[in-house]
């Protein structure tokens, strides 16, 4: 897959909310849940027990596989025959969901199953690996070559197997609707990258083989973390607060994160509503922290004015750039965040420098620049004007060992390598980074 256009705000606006856990959460979900065909077989949900057969049994078995694989349960056969293995799995699921474990699929179990199958939940007790199953989705055993535009049960089989083969907390489940659209193609490409296959988005024999293998046993495709860079960090904005949920920064720190960059402002008129709480909360928890500004070049010569707004906003939080734990301020220089992928209409090197110069004078710190080589090449003529600034580079490709450097630059400080990281204490995916240096290097950069 080619290098993505990085829209640090826009891509996170659609981040999936992670579920709450425990019986109370399940009961709340049950009360609002309607009967749905999560696997695409049937929305009919009669009471099922050992001896039941038919489409509802296939749907139940498929949903059980989706609901329990995040807890490392090997899938059961989705063959439409409710036998002892299905009954055992129903009991295991009922215990996970805090329900009476009688092995009967009644209304409460169906409601919980719909919820768990459609979004990742984990059981208190982990499953154990057993022999792989061949039939785990129950749609078809046919394996035709499929690509974008295809429709039908074969596409449902692919979508279901992709949901089973991809690590569920990083890859939101696909709708199993039988329509091979752009979302399905993108997920196929992600699987192909994980499996070291040709990443063309086409489900041919090799991709089918990997899907059948991974979906049927206790394994997943997981986003790779860059090797050789042991210090982790993350980036946050309002999108990491779904429904106003706070970030538990102590939990983030306890997970091993050492630094955070927090969105402060955008353009001339936006201050992130969680700037003050997140910047100070992260710092109080022991992370090194930096505020960042998203530059908008929608009007000419606004860099200095955007800098003034940023300076005022972050000073109001207590940030000085000089306190222990303060990382340099960050200038987010990338394509427009309107979904177009266009270069900033009035973005220029001189306007960017106006922001950088004013912020450097205000805080006595050389700002860091968040960008990527392709942006500077395409939008600012491969300029070397930013060679003296530390860089936070964004590149989500799994095929590289470090991000490519812009013209004139000799190193990078941070690498944002994914937009789908999960951290304890945050109820939505976040972008994650690694630091290019030692803990002592990070401490020096953070005035510690």
Topology:
Elements: H1 23-32, H2 55-68, H3 84-96, H4 107-118, H5 153-165, H6 182-194, H7 205-215, E1 232-236, H8 249-254, E2 257-266, E3 270-271, H9 275-284, E4 288-294, H10 303-315, E5 330-332, H11 349-363, E6 368-371, H12 373-379, E7 391-394, E8 414-421, E9 430-435, H13 439-445
Parallel strand pairs: 1-2, 2-4, 4-5, 5-6, 6-7, 7-8
Antiparallel strand pairs: 1-9, 2-3, 8-9
Helix pairs in contact: 1-4, 2-3, 2-4, 5-7, 10-11
Family: Belongs to the glycosyl hydrolase 25 family.
Organism: Streptomyces cellulosae
Pfam families: Glyco_hydro_25, PG_binding_1
CATH architecture of the domain at 232-445: Alpha-Beta Barrel
Count of DSSP H/I helices? 13
CATH fold name of the domain at 232-445, please?
A: TIM Barrel
The CATH homology group name of the domain at 232-445: Glycosidases
- Which blocks of ≥5 consecutive residues have pLDDT under 50? 1-7, 9-33
Helix/strand class: alpha/beta
Quickly name the level 1 CATH class of the domain at 232-445. Alpha Beta
Q: Biggest sheet: strands, sense, closure?
A: 8 strands, mixed, barrel
Envelope shape: elongated
- Please tally the β strands and state the result: 9
Oligomeric form: single chain
Q: In whole angstroms, how far apart are the ends?
A: 40 Å
Order of helices and strands: HHHHHHHEHEEHEHEHEHEEEH
Whole-angstrom Rg:
24 Å
Strand percentage, roughly?
A: 5-15%
Strand order of the largest sheet: 1-2-4-5-6-7-8-9
Overall pLDDT score: 90
Portion in helices: 25-40%
Signal peptide: 1-28
Pfam families: Glyco_hydro_25, PG_binding_1
Protein name: GH25 family lysozyme
Domain Peptidoglycan binding-like: 73-113, 152-211
